[in-house]
Design a protein that fits this description.
Layout (H helix, E strand, L loop, with lengths): L2 H16 L2 H19 L2
Length: 41
């Protein structure tokens, strides 16, 4: 795993614990976009 992925996973866990669904969706969207950019680079 890349350090960014590990950090992102930690952030997602924190957000889930806080139950901030909007923020979770935003972060997930950002990760998904970065993942696609990495794959189709």
């Amino acid at each position: 795993m890349l350090p960014f992925e590990l950090l992102s996973l930690l952030v997602l866990i924190i957000v889930l614990n806080q139950r901030q669904e909007f923020l979770l969706r935003f972060i997930y969207g950002q990760l998904w976009e970065r993942l696609h950019n990495f794959i189709y680079q």
